[in-house]
Structure formats: C-alpha cells, structure tokens
C-alpha cells in the first residue's frame, strides 16, 4: 500500500514541488500518474524512494513509514520497489543477464538463487534469447525490457515505471504496457508515470492527474484533458 | 554476507583495479615511494641505535684519583662503593697506576721501550677508576657527579661523542616520526583521489546499486578492498625495493665509515618490523583512503 497524506515538498530555492497531495494506492492496483512537466511526477518518485525527504505530511510505502524511516532502513524500502527508469540505466559493460543478476547480487542473494531466478525473469519479459547480449546490441524496446526485468527480479511489491514509453515507438510502447499489466495481474502494484495521454486512454485504469504540485483529478477511466491545460 | 558476495567483492575489486590500471599504478608507486623513504629513515635509525649500543658497551669514564688519597685496600673499597652509589653506574674497577702503566706499555707494542725509566717511583700515572655506565642517557650526570668528588683529580670521558650521538638519535627519532606522519597524510590524500576517480567512473553502477537497495556497506566494501589490495601490493613491492636499497646503497655507504662497519644491522633482523610498518601504512592508508572517498557517492 502506498499512502500520501497531505504531502508537501518545498525546495530551499523556493520551489514548491508538491502542495498538499493525498492519495492511496492499494496493493495490486495499477495506477497512471500523469501531468505536464513540473507537475510533481518526478518528485513523487524521489519521495517514494526516499531520495528526497518530504517537507510535511505523511507517506507510507509498503509498510515503511517514511516520516520515521532511519537511513539504515532505506535500502530495505528500496528493495520493496522496482524502478524502471526512463533512460533505462543499464550498465554498458555487463550483458543482459549480468545486468539483471547485478540487482540480485547487490542485495546479497546467493549464486544458486541468481542462476535460477534470472533466466525466469528474462523469460517473463521475453528476452531469454538475448541474455548474453550487451545493452548496446539491443533496441530501445529491448533495453526497456531489460530494465523491467531488473526491476522485477527481486520480486518487489511495487513497480514504478517512469515514462516507460518515452523512448520507444507506439507499437513497442503498447507491448511494454501489456507486459506491465501482466505483471500487475500477478499481484504486483504498478505505478506508471507518464505524460502520454494516448497511452493512458487505451487502458481503463486509475489515473491520478497532477498539475503544479496538486492533484487535479483521481479517477478510473476517463478524465478531462482540459483540466491539465 | 554469503560466499557468493565474497566472490563478488573480490572480483569487483580486481576489476576496479584493472579498469583504472593507470591510477592504480600511480597509487602503488606513490605508496612505494612513501614506504621507501619511511623505511630508509627507519633502517638508518636502527643502525645508529646499533652503533650507540656498541658505544654504550664500550663507554667508560676514567677517573684519576688524587695522589694525596691512600691506596690501601680499605680506601679502594670505600671509594668504589662511593662511586657505585651514583645513579646510572653499572660497574667500577680500581686500576692501580702500576697496572695502568703496564697496560699502556703493552698498548704501545714495539714502541713500549720508550717508557723505560718511568717505572716504579717515576711512574707519572695515577691510580684510576674505570666506571661503566648502564644507560648512555645518564653518561653526563654520572660524569658530573664523579668529577665533583674530592678524591678525583680529573677525569677522561667521551662526552662530546656521546652528546653528538644522543642528539643524532633524538633528531632521527623526531624526523622519522614527522616524515612518517607527513608521508602517511600525502599517501592518504593520493589514494583517496585515486579511488575517487575510480568511483566517478563507476558512479552509474553505484547509483543503480543504491536504487535496487544495496546497503552502503555492500557498496563500500569492494572499494575498501581495492584500497587494501593496493596497500598489500605496495607493501610487497616496497619490501623488495627496500632490500635492494639497503643492500646495494645504504650498507656500502655505511661500510665506508670504519667505525660503523662492524655495527651494521643485517636486513633480516629488521624484516619483521619493516613488514609491520609497511603493512600498517599500506592497509590503513588503503582502507581509510577508500572509505573516505566513497562517502560522496553514497548520498543518493
């Protein structure tokens, strides 16, 4: 469960990135967070991962109360969240399987578990046959799926996809979205951060729309484009 | 931490060293240079100590007894006891002027005949006390105390040499200490920078590690291990170089000084101390340098 209760985020330079937003995402939900640049989407990700601290309000992520979370517990919070970054953030010097295994290795998994789990996850994202390739040898969509496999491999409660369709063509974008929906069907909470309205329209899912650090609508299926301006 | 992680740490550390080969080599060379300077100061100081030891074992104050004091056995014993009571005196030997004369003649060898005619009543020498000092640091105070005794007419000591050696030893100890501190700081700075560069080139990797939930300790460990490996590598190489420097430069140079030639300390007997000094420098500088330089990259 993810809970934002009257959350503010003010930066020292005077920017108010979030202005009292509140929402609750139950376990197993699929949610789009949409909004134009500067609406506060990236700030939400930063707060969820505790990359930044919120100025006021209450945040709970997968049972971690971020108001009281000690620095030493941050790695464990992050293990409960898988993030697919817009720029993929793959390690160029590692093969596909090494990139995915790396995420398991750094949280202390043993080799046996890694050898069993990595091929399975690569199979889920349809990249079993490319496990020995390097990221540069893959298309944008394939790199996206490696990033998704890496996010999935530690079996997180929540997957956050930041602009997952930003760097791929529409056909691939749809493919990735369908993959996320499949993952969601397995019980994982999925948050998709996007500004792609067409993509959102294709799927009848909950949409939280942000503008100037405030929630302007939180609906399932159909929202007013005009509200976003 | 499981065995897989240990393997990962070791692999990751070696990979880091290989990827940043130039900076690794630079760190190793700087550390070797620092260790060699420190080592040379240490070895020289050990040789000075050895020479001082020799001097200590030989040093004695010869105190000449005023002729007006009797040399019967009771007077001799009382005088010896009086000197022995002075703090720092190891032993006292009473030498009559006849003994001293015959020793002097023997020391002249073939030229001993020059002393003919000075025996017996004409012996110009005095009865003397040969006083040995336990610790060279007390040489001066014993010498002063003996010279102030009314029975003593005058004395002969090697005070100037002792003072010079004491000053050399103290200076060497002080210089050695500050050279060590200074070089350790310089090494620490260079090693931290080397590792900082290595981390900068791997910041993407560190960033991903942070996002997938690696603990700071897990991220830090391979880098600290890398620093330790650089330290170990430098220690081994520095010991080898130090042996060469000592055997082929320092020993031949010291041997030129005849008074030092029989007190030169063999390298073998200082090896353990050198391993400890170099090892400590290598490990501490390597580990602390890495730990310090990674802090910036862990703030994600």
Structural description of this entry:
The complex is a heterodimer of chains A (229) and B (300). Helix content of chain A is 34%, strand content 26%. Chain A contains eight helices and ten strands. Chain A has helices spanning 41-48, 74-79, 96-105, 111-124, 140-152, 170-185, 197-202, 225-228, and strands spanning 2-10, 16-25, 30-34, 56-61, 64-65, 81-84, 158-162, 189-194, 206-211, 214-220. In chain A, strand 1 and strand 2 form a beta hairpin. The two termini of chain A are 30 Å apart. The mean pLDDT of chain A is 90. Chain B has two domains: 3-54 and 163-298, no CATH class; 60-157, Alpha-Beta Plaits (2-Layer Sandwich). Chain B has helices at residues 3-19, 21-58, 73-84, 97-108, 139-147, 159-201, 203-211, 216-255, 267-294; strands spanning 60-65, 89-95, 128-133, 152-156. The model of chain B has no long low-confidence stretch (mean pLDDT 82). The chains are: A alpha/beta (229), B alpha+beta (300). The interface between A and B is medium-sized, with 23 and 22 residues.
Quick recap:
Chain A has 229 residues and is of the alpha/beta class. Chain A has helices at residues 41-48, 74-79, 96-105, 111-124, 140-152, 170-185, 197-202, 225-228; strands at 2-10, 16-25, 30-34, 56-61, 64-65, 81-84, 158-162, 189-194, 206-211, 214-220. Chain A has a single domain (29-53, 81-221), classed as P-loop containing nucleotide triphosphate hydrolases (Rossmann fold, 3-Layer(aba) Sandwich), CATH 3.40.50.
Characteristic terms for this protein:
heterodimer, A: 229 residues, alpha/beta, Rossmann fold, 4-stranded antiparallel β-sheet, B: 300 residues, alpha+beta, Alpha-Beta Plaits, 4 strands
């Amino acid at each position: 469960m993810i809970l934002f209760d009257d959350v503010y985020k003010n930066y020292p330079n005077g920017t108010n990135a979030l202005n009292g937003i509140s929402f609750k995402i139950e376990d197993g939900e699929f949610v789009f967070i949409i909004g134009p640049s500067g609406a506060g989407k990236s700030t939400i990700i930063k707060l969820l991962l505790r990359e930044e601290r919120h100025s006021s309000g209450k945040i709970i992520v997968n049972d971690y109360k971020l108001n009281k979370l000690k620095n030493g517990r941050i790695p464990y919070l992050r293990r409960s969240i898988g993030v697919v970054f817009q720029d993929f953030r793959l390690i160029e010097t590692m093969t596909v399987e090494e990139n995915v295994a790396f995420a398991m290795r750094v949280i202390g998994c043993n080799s046996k578990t890694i050898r069993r789990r990595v091929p399975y996850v690569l199979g889920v994202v349809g990249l079993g046959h490319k496990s020995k390739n390097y990221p540069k040898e893959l298309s944008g969509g394939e790199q996206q799926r490696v990033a998704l496999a890496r996010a999935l491999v530690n079996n997180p409660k929540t997957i956050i996809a930041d602009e997952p369709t930003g760097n791929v063509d529409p056909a691939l974008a749809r493919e990735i979205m369908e993959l996320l929906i499949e993952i969601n069907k397995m019980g994982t909470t999925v948050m998709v951060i996007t500004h792609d309205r067409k993509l959102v329209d294709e799927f009848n899912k909950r949409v939280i729309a942000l503008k100037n650090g405030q929630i302007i609508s939180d609906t399932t299926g159909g929202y007013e484009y005009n509200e976003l301006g | 931490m499981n065995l897989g992680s240990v393997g990962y740490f070791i692999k990751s550390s070696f990979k880091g060293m290989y990827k940043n080969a130039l900076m690794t080599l630079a760190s190793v060379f700087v550390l070797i240079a620092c260790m060699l300077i420190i080592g040379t100061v240490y070895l020289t100081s050990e040789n000075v100590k050895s020479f001082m030891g020799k001097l200590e074992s030989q040093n004695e104050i010869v105190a000449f007894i005023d002729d007006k004091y009797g040399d019967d056995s009771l007077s001799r014993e009382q005088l010896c006891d009086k000197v022995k009571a002075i703090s720092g005196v190891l032993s006292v030997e009473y030498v009559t002027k006849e003994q001293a004369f015959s020793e002097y003649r023997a020391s002249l060898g073939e030229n001993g005949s020059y002393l003919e005619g000075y025996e017996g009543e004409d012996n110009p020498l005095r009865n003397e006390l040969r006083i040995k000092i336990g610790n060279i640091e007390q040489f001066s105070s014993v010498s002063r105390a003996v010279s102030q005794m009314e029975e003593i007419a005058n004395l002969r000591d090697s005070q100037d040499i002792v003072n010079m050696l004491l000053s050399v030893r103290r200076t060497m100890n002080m210089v050695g200490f500050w050279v060590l501190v200074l070089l350790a700081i310089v090494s620490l700075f260079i090693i931290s920078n080397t590792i900082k560069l290595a981390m900068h080139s791997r910041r993407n990797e560190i960033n991903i590690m942070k996002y997938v939930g690696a603990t700071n300790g897990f991220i830090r460990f391979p880098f600290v291990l890398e620093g330790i490996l650089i330290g170990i590598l430098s220690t081994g190489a520095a010991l080898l170089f130090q042996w060469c420097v000592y055997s082929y430069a320092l020993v031949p140079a010291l041997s030129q000084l005849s008074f030092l030639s029989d007190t030169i300390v063999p390298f073998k007997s200082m090896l353990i101390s050198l391993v400890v000094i170099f090892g400590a420098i290598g490990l501490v500088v390597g580990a602390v340098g890495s730990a310090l330089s990674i802090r910036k990259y862990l703030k994600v």
